[in-house]
Specification:
The chain is α+β, with helices and mostly antiparallel strands. It is built from four helices and 14 strands. It has helices at residues 2-5, 23-51, 174-177, 204-209; strands at residues 58-60, 64-69, 72-81, 87-101, 107-114, 121-124, 127-134, 148-159, 164-172, 178-180, 182-184, 188-195, 220-228, 236-238. The strands form four sheets. Strands 1, 2, 3, 7 and 10 form a five-stranded mixed β-sheet that branches. A hairpin with a 5-residue loop joins strand 4 and strand 5. The longest helix has 29 residues, at 23-51. The chain starts with a helix and ends in a 12-residue tail after the last strand.
Length: 250
């Protein structure tokens, strides 16, 4: 009889049959639903923000190389695109930290300077072989390479998947990441697809005024394709006098 006469026990526990009765349980259920909605909205926002944030995958070589070439001394690094979508309008900058010394070789501070690059722009990133020549205009001239404290790489690309411009950063520590007298191995190979040249019948107007010596029998290039061996990104070998400058790896 007591159970039947209690208005709070006439339902399944989510309220009462008559509004106004048992305000405590109703307030508790309201707070429970409110906190549940806040939790779902928070985790949904976090997951969507991670999924919608551009994060192009670009892998940098573990080491940077310093080698004497036939045309001078060069500092080189390399990177490769691992994103499934294209990265366009790529700009690269290289900043180095140089230790300043006072009397007696005592370290007095560290200055940051930009290293000019042989090629600082690339329209489409697949692989990038970055070179800086250590000459009279380089901040690393006159044996200042031993005062190199760090090297920061800043890569600005346009992510075609999210249609946004993003920046990527990488850092090199000379004490552990530099390799002297070495060159990167080739990691990119090209394949040219040749085809038949168009016949003279397709160009009647042109053949009427063309010299008799002109011929269309030579094959033409229909396409250029390339393959990249990502496993060779960090591969390098010792340089020798037989290595020529025109054999630049990519």
């Amino acid at each position: 009889d007591d159970v039947a006469s209690d208005p709070c026990l006439h339902d399944v526990g989510f309220g009462t049959d008559s509004p106004g009765a048992c305000a405590g349980p109703q307030l508790l259920v309201f707070l429970e639903h409110f906190v549940g909605c806040i939790d779902v909205a928070f985790f949904t926002a976090v997951i969507l923000s991670k999924l919608l944030q551009p994060s192009p995958a670009v892998r940098f070589s573990k080491h940077f190389l310093v080698c004497d070439e036939l045309d001078g001394k060069w500092l080189t690094i390399r990177m490769v695109r691992e994103s499934p979508h294209q990265l366009r309008d790529c700009e690269l900058s290289l900043q180095c930290g140089l230790i300043t010394r006072g009397e007696g070789g005592v370290v007095t501070g560290c200055t940051e300077e930009a290293l000019p690059l042989q090629c600082a722009f690339k329209s489409n990133l697949e692989t990038w072989f970055v070179r800086h020549q250590i000459d009279a205009r380089s901040p690393l001239r006159r044996e200042r390479l031993q005062d190199l404290a760090y090297m920061n790489v800043t890569l600005k690309v346009f992510d075609t998947a999210f249609m946004q411009e993003v920046r990527l950063y990488h850092n090199y520590t000379p004490s552990t990441d530099v390799v002297y007298d070495a060159r990167f191995e080739v990691m990119k190979s090209w394949e040219i697809q040749m085809g038949q040249a168009p016949s003279d019948r397709a160009y009647p107007a042109a053949t009427a005024t063309t010299s008799p010596t002109r011929q269309h029998s030579a094959p033409v290039i229909h396409g250029i394709y390339h393959t990249v061996d990502h496993a060779k990104l960090d591969a390098y070998r010792e340089a020798s006098d037989s290595v020529h400058v025109d054999a630049v790896p990519v």
